[in-house]
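We were asked to recover a plausible sequence for a given structure. The inputs and outputs are reproduced exactly as logged, with field labels preserved.

PROBLEM: sequence recovery
POSITIONS: 237
GIVEN STRUCTURE:
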């Protein structure tokens, strides 16, 4: 089981889930970095993966997980996408991201975090001050150069709807009901694209349910991993 953190996150974002799931299975974590395109990041990660692997990706990590599945589908047993969707950025979204990247070019990482993950991205239920500090700390560890490359990868990521439609591995689409960056409706559409897809929404959480409701996310992933790998397409297909 391999965890892939999202844009601006280190392994700390999955700390609780890794610790919980490592009790009964082999778990590892790989950062999606080293290139400015999702396809190249996936190619860099592939040599690090075991012959058969379950992928858990948040945000950018989800896009990389789908790209790995596209390149070598026989190696991927199942995928959990957290706050991730298979759609390419619109020109408006790409332009807005370009504006946020100005802070990174100037080395203003804290400013970028505030703009990239505004207050609404962390739910009212969570401790916003504490989690905001966690996000800033992870971004500082990665550094402006890595954050810029990840921003480019997000900006240039391909449309992956066809990848989802062809994927016969079980897919769990998980997210927060209060996430303003990846709305619940978009997650519903994402789950509906997969032949063997299911949706899990964590009430009262935003863009980082792994930090906001760590135990609930760990339990959802444990249940997903415990299910049979016998695959059946939906009747409509």
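RECOVERED SEQUENCE:
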């Amino acid at each position: 089981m391999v965890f892939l953190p999202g844009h601006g996150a280190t392994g700390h974002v999955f700390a609780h889930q890794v610790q919980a799931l490592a009790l009964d299975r082999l778990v590892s974590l790989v950062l999606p970095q080293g290139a400015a395109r999702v396809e190249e990041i996936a190619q860099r990660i592939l040599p690090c993966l075991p012959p058969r692997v379950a992928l858990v990706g948040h945000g950018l990590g989800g896009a990389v997980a789908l790209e790995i599945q596209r390149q070598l589908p026989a190696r991927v047993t199942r995928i959990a996408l957290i706050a991730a969707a298979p759609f390419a950025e619109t020109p408006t979204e790409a332009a807005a991201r370009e504006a946020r990247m100005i802070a990174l070019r100037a080395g203003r990482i804290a400013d970028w975090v505030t703009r990239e993950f505004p207050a609404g991205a962390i739910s009212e239920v969570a401790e916003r001050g504490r989690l905001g500090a966690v996000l800033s700390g992870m971004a500082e560890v990665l550094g402006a150069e890595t954050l810029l490359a990840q921003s480019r990868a997000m900006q240039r990521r391909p449309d992956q709807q066809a990848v989802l439609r062809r994927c016969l591995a079980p897919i769990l689409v998980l997210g927060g009901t209060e996430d303003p960056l990846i709305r619940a409706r978009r997650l519903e559409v994402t789950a509906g694209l997969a032949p063997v897809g299911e949706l899990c929404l964590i009430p009262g959480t935003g863009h980082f349910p792994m930090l906001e409701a760590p135990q609930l996310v760990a339990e959802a992933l444990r249940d997903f991993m415990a299910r049979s790998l016998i695959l059946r397409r939906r009747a409509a297909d």
